Amino acid sequence: MKAALQEFINYMSEVKKASANTIMSYQNDLIKLIRYLNSLNITETGKINETSLNSYILNMEREGMSPATVSRNIASIKAFVLYMIKKGIIQEDPSERMRAPKVEKKAPHTLTTDQVNDLLNQPDTDTLKGIRDKAMLELLYATGIRVSELIAIKIEDIHLKGKFIRCCNGNKERMIPFGTMAKQALEKYLKQTRGELLGAIETNYCFTNLSGEPMSRQGFWKIIKGYGRSAGIQDDITPQVLRNSFAVHMMENGADLKSLQEFMGHSDISTTQLYMQNRTRKITEVYAQSHPRANLEL
């Protein structure tokens, strides 16, 4: 079954041109499925049936997995099964009647502009690490890109003179502008720090760790969480929170939904519309505080 999974992963990567993030999610989800099926003595892909799949989903729910996690796993299973049917390994679809649980779409968690400023001011730009961290944080907030896109940026993707980056996510490509502060932070990093971090190592990746190897997702998560604590921000800080903050702050300052969708790289505009919940809540608060008759009763 592991061989079938590897074939599927190769297909998603080479034929479907799925993003590295999507492929990683599929792989992680399906490895857990295979481990569970093995515990039921189901070791051949052709022996997967509706009962075993439903049993796996029920087991996830008993373990307290969120509806969003269960829903994502079901999507991974359906994609894998569809590929197996296409290859003739499975004749009938055992996942056909699987239905994803309803997922409540909550307003994205964001920071205030003051909190963002505090966060971005945390790196010590008198050190190599601080100069690199400042450049990464400034670029992330200036562009709203995903963390997977941030660590995948190569030197040739950065256009300092024009103040934009070329961002590739799978087979999709978009150009995203950035402002003067991000440009200055990038210039300082590229001129003063990157070469020192690389040493004798050669790589096209823009951001590296202190050993000169490409920055990892986990490595950057630790960096941003550390600066969140030092800034005194009580909320949990992740790269996604800074991405959310970019989107909401853009909308608050007049960005239209369609442009924001292009900046964020969303294939479906309904994903972008989630950020309007924050905007609607703020407008309601402003109205309640500002209109002379907002809180009066007859």
Please give the structural blueprint:
Blueprint: H1 2-14, H2 20-39, H3 50-62, H4 67-86, H5 113-120, H6 128-143, H7 147-152, E1 158-159, E2 164-169, E3 172-177, H8 180-198, H9 217-230, H10 239-252, H11 257-264, H12 269-273, H13 276-290
Antiparallel strand pairs: 1-2, 2-3
Helix pairs in contact: 1-2, 2-4, 6-8, 6-10
Keywords: Cell cycle, Cell division, Chromosome partition, Cytoplasm, DNA integration, DNA recombination, DNA-binding
Subunit structure: Forms a cyclic heterotetrameric complex composed of two molecules of XerC and two molecules of XerD.
GO molecular function: DNA binding; tyrosine-based site-specific recombinase activity
Describe the structure.
By secondary structure, this protein is mainly alpha-helical. The longest helix is centred in the first third of the chain and has 20 residues, at about 20-40. About 55% of the residues lie in helices and about 5% in strands. The protein folds into two domains: about 1-85, DNA polymerase, domain 1 (Orthogonal Bundle); about 115-285, hpI Integrase, Chain A, CATH 1.10.443. It has a three-stranded antiparallel beta sheet with strand order 1-2-3, with no helix packed on it. Strand 1 (about 160) and strand 2 form a beta hairpin. The protein starts with a helix and ends in an 8-residue tail after the last helix. The protein has helices spanning about 1-15, 20-40, 50-60, 65-85, 115-120, 130-145, 145-150, 180-200, 215-230, 240-250, 255-265, 270-275, 275-290; strands spanning about 160, 165-170, 170-175. Helix 6 (about 130-145) packs across helix 10 (about 240-250).
